């Protein structure tokens, strides 16, 4: 690693600090208009910020107690595709409300037939004049019930090989034919996930994102972006409690007096520090203009089970009290804006999901094996067949 964190009196820090002093309680829209939500983007959405300026903005935002809006699908994954592949009309229509969080987005990718094998998806989009007509069934769609915009990946060319016949669309979630059914998960929170049924949904052709057939490229880029974006120190996909906060909490309640628990806490703390150093390494790469590699996959593969260990240890330190829903493990709660994962109890019940969502551990291991270690690629005899033919043979 070869970089220095920007000092307190860094000359680039002053204008940012001045902005937060003049806008002490900024709304998400003000943050978005100032370019602070995606500072690395070009103007007018961002500030063309290099990694150093991004870090300064991040620190000053925290110092001011300001939080970005919660619109992860747009901000972390998909809106970036509008910059590179969208039309000017799409950018003007969608980016402002997405970055300010005024329009929540959701990601209509996974299907009941399997989420890992995205290229095999069955939802069809048939062109009819100036519309596409879509039929299909999506599942595990986070935030679909709140979303105004869905990023849909559907098959537009069933007679092409599976990776080549996919396209992406920006769909209004209140379009007739869209039905949303909530899934209640083990955290007891209804509506984190949903099933989405699409029954002859008519999508105007100008809502195609990129070109027909670019759906695979866009979707894999968006999933990769999320893996990097989700690699902060918090236990749940970079959000919520961290290993440092766990150790502080355990010390606060006297749990570190137990030697066995203290050993486990030390292990988890060390893992957290290793992850922090890995994050610095990728920051160093960015600050020195080195091209990012598939290290996002490695980071997620390590960070997800680490997060599960952080919240599991907090829960176990509570003893039988931990079995009571809503009981806080530590008297001092974290403050992370409206981030639901700030709640240790909720973070614990949610945590099994983190090794599944956005690429399961096995899929990430495949990425590392094939792209970093150069091991032989997984055999797929259907890869070059027309999708419709492969499907006929499979049934
Ligand atoms: C918290 C959370 C949020 C989510 N949000 C969304 C969302 O907003 N939108 C969306 O579209 N989806 C979402 N998902 C779905 C998620 O993308 C899928 O769960 C994931 O891709 C895995 O797909 P699957 O559940 O169908 O499991 P499958 O793909 O059926 O896999 C089942 C098991 O087989 C293993 N496996 C599969 N293929 C291979 C292989 N080639 N080699 C080795 N092992 C393999 C997997 O690792 C897994 O253990 C979310 C999931 C979670 C947990």
Would you kindly provide a written description of the structure presented here, covering whatever features stand out?
The chain contains 12 helices and 8 strands. It is of the alpha+beta class and 395 residues long. A hairpin with a 5-residue loop joins strand 6 (178-184) and strand 7 (190-204). Helix 1 packs parallel to helix 3 (51-63). The termini are far apart. 37% of the residues are buried. It binds flavin-adenine dinucleotide (FAD). Flavin-adenine dinucleotide (FAD) binds at residues 106-107, 109-110, 114-116, 140-142, 353, 356-357, 360, 362-363, 366, 378.
Please outline the helices and strands.
Layout (H helix, E strand, L loop, with lengths): L12 H10 L5 H6 L17 H13 L8 H14 L2 H12 L5 E4 L15 E5 L2 E8 L10 E7 L10 E7 L5 E7 L5 E15 L3 E2 L5 H15 L13 H10 L6 H29 L7 H23 L26 H7 L10 H12 L14 H8 L1
Parallel strand pairs: 1-4
Antiparallel strand pairs: 2-3, 3-7, 4-5, 5-8, 6-7
Helix pairs in contact: 1-3, 4-5, 4-6, 6-9, 7-8, 7-9, 8-9, 9-10, 9-11
Flavin-adenine dinucleotide (FAD) binds next to strand 1 and helix 11.
Summary keywords:
globular; four-stranded antiparallel sheet; alpha+beta; single chain; binds flavin-adenine dinucleotide; 395 residues; Butyryl-CoA Dehydrogenase, subunit A, domain 3; 12 helices; Butyryl-CoA Dehydrogenase, subunit A, domain 2
What is this entry, summarized?
This protein has 395 residues and is of the alpha+beta class. The chain has helices at residues 13-22, 28-33, 51-63, 72-85, 88-99, 215-229, 243-252, 259-287, 295-317, 344-350, 361-372, 387-394, and strands spanning 105-108, 124-128, 131-138, 149-155, 166-172, 178-184, 190-204, 208-209. Strand 2 and strand 3 (131-138) form a beta hairpin.
């Amino acid at each position: 690693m070869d970089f220095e964190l920007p000092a307190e009196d860094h000359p680039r820090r002053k204008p940012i600090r001045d902005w937060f002093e003049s806008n002490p309680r900024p709304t998400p829209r003000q943050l978005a208009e100032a370019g602070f939500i995606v500072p690395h983007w070009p103007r007018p959405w961002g500030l063309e910020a290099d990694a150093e300026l991004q870090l300064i903005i991040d620190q000053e935002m925290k110092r001011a107690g300001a939080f970005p809006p919660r619109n992860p699908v747009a901000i972390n994954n998909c809106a970036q595709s509008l910059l590179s592949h969208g039309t000017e009309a799409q950018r003007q229509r969608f980016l402002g409300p997405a970055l300010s969080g005024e329009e929540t987005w959701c990601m209509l990718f996974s299907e009941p037939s399997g989420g890992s094998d995205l290229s095999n998806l069955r939802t069809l989009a048939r062109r009819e004049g100036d519309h596409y007509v879509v039929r299909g069934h999506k599942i595990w769609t986070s935030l679909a019930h709140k979303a105004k915009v869905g990023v849909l990946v559907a098959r537009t060319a069933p007679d092409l090989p599976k990776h080549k016949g996919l396209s992406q669309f920006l769909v209004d979630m209140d379009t007739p034919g869209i039905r949303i059914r909530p899934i209640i998960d083990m955290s007891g929170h209804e509506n984190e996930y949903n099933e989405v049924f699409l029954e002859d949904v008519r999508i105007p052709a100008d809502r195609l994102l990129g070109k027909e057939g670019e759906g695979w490229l866009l979707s894999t880029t968006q999933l990769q972006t999320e893996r990097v974006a989700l690699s902060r120190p918090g236990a749940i996909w970079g959000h919520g409690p961290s290993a440092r906060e766990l150790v502080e909490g355990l010390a606060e309640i006297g749990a570190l007096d137990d030697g066995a628990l203290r050993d486990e806490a030390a292990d988890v703390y060390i893992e957290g520090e290793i992850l922090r150093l890995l994050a610095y390494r990728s920051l160093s790469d960015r600050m020195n203009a080195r091209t990012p590699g598939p290290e996002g996959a490695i980071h997620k593969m390590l960070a997800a089970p680490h997060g599960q260990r952080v919240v599991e240890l907090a829960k176990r330190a509570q003893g039988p009290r931990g079995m009571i829903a809503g009981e806080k493990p530590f008297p001092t709660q974290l403050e992370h804006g409206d981030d639901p994962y700030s709640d240790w109890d909720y973070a614990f019940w949610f945590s099994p999901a983190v090794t599944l969502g956005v690429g399961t551990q096995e899929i990430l291991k495949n990425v590392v094996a094939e792209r970093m270690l150069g091991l032989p690629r997984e055999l797929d005899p259907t890869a070059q067949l027309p999708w419709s033919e492969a499907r006929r043979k499979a049934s």
